[in-house]
Amino acid sequence: xxxxxxxxxxFAPLFNxxxxxxxQDEEVMRQVYALRYEVYxxxxxxxxxxxxxxxxxxxxxxxxxxxxxxxxxxxELVGYVRLIQADAQKEFPFQSHxxxxxxxxxxxxxxxxxxxxxLMVRKNYRRRVGDILAGVRQSFRGLTPAHDDRSNSPQIxxxxxxxxxxxxxxxxxxxxxxxxERSLARIMTRMNFGFQQLGPPTDYYGVxxxxxxxxxxxxxxxxxKNQALLTWMRRPELNGHPYEAAVTAx
Length: 250
Description:
Number of helices: 7
Order of helices and strands: EHEEHEHEHEEEHHH
Shape: globular
Largest sheet: 8 strands, mixed
Helix content: 25-40%
Radius of gyration: 18 Å
CATH superfamily: Gcn5-related N-acetyltransferase (GNAT)
Structural class: alpha+beta
Number of strands: 8
């Protein structure tokens, strides 16, 4: 039998993202904490390295977060993002830092939302001139199906977003919060992810502003602007990832 063909519209053919569990996937979570230390403490200086003598960055939000990792075809960790649930007071971390919101801003019910946090791509996958922390060029203009891991397509970012989108659909989540720098917010708009700014910029691991995306509105916008992307995000995965299916089917 011939190997199965990868779909023509494949937006992250060389990366496989999946959820990892805080209390169960201990080895992967150790890799996550080490990556976060490399990026947040050593590379960007958002957090003081001496506070993490074991070279693992973790915080009080990890236990109530959903963790998602991106891996290359060698199953090496190359990207990460987490979704933070509201605390007992029904508040999210961004609210203690971005505490000024535009007049008239109404926040949705906390149980229907999650905060996107610690979105990052490993440094050696950000070698292109102008790449930001999320692994996308600042000059990014729009999405096309990707065919190699050095194209202009933000494959790792898309792979991670695909997983948090699927998780959100399965668990009744309707909204995403994110504290983003202007460059990433601009890129998300060009990808047709409908984040709306909620307040002015503030210093929260760099200069960022709070944003909110309504997942249903994002689906509609992507469907209008790039139906192939929406089809790919919704597509069931075979053997965990289309790449694996192509190379293992016989």
